Amino acid sequence: KQWYQRRVAITAGMVMCASAPEKVEILDPPAGSKPGDKVTVEGFSGTPDQQLNPKKKVFEGIQPDFLVSPEGHALYKGVQWKINDQVITAPSMRGCGIK
Q: Rounded to two decimals, what is the model's pTM?
């Protein structure tokens, strides 16, 4: 029973990391941001699905388009990720994927 209670824990966010075979680092939110702030990407709807069907593997379908730019900015399809109009960045990694 204890396993089941942990298994169905509700989560409200994800930790996103810049990722390369030799290194992984957590992305930096802008100064002053706090847990629960909405991440936006210009040109993409901010309306989340009510519930994701794990069999459809939605995240796995869009994740290849998550990248870190040569300037260190988090991107989705070439557009910056932002919180409160400030860019989310990778501390030191450049030109890699985000997982």
A: 0.81
